[in-house]
């Protein structure tokens, strides 16, 4: 945004925080060669996941489990 003649440009706290975030992001990319994301969390193995079970070749049919127990 261009300041009008005779008016001073004021840097607000929000502008300062935004500039700091951008600078931090640029430094992070320079250090690691790519953006680093911290949003990926470890997925618990206890959670039911049909895709993971199919990849592992685990059969989840209740009839097969019940017949093996008897």
List its salient traits.
single chain; 70 residues; mainly alpha; 50% helix; elongated
Question: Could you please describe the fold and organization of this structure?
Answer:
With about 70 residues, the protein is mainly alpha-helical. It has one domain (about 15-35, about 45-70). The chain has three helices and no strands. Helix content is about 50%, strand content about 0%. It has helices at about 15-30, 50-55, 60-70. The radius of gyration is 27 Å and the shape is elongated.
How many distinct helices? 3
**Average pLDDT figure:** 77
- The N- and C-terminal alpha carbons lie at a distance of 77 Å
Structural class: mainly alpha
Order of helices and strands: HHH
| Low-pLDDT residue intervals, each spanning 5 or more residues | none
User: C-alpha Rg, in Å?
Assistant: 27 Å
Count of domain modules: 1
Number of strands: 0
Quaternary structure state of the chains depicted: single chain
What percentage of amino acids are in beta strands? under 5%
List the helices and strands and how they pair.
Blueprint: H1 13-32, H2 50-56, H3 62-69
Give a nutshell description of this structure.
With 70 residues, the protein is mainly α. It has helices spanning 13-32, 50-56, 62-69. It has one domain (13-37, 46-69).
């Amino acid at each position: 945004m261009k300041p009008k003649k005779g008016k001073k440009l004021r840097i607000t706290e929000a502008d300062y925080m935004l500039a700091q975030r951008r600078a931090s992001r640029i430094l992070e990319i320079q250090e690691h060669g790519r953006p680093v994301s911290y949003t990926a969390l470890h997925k618990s193995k206890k959670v039911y996941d049909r895709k993971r079970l199919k990849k592992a070749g685990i059969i989840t049919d209740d009839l097969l489990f019940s017949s093996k127990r008897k």
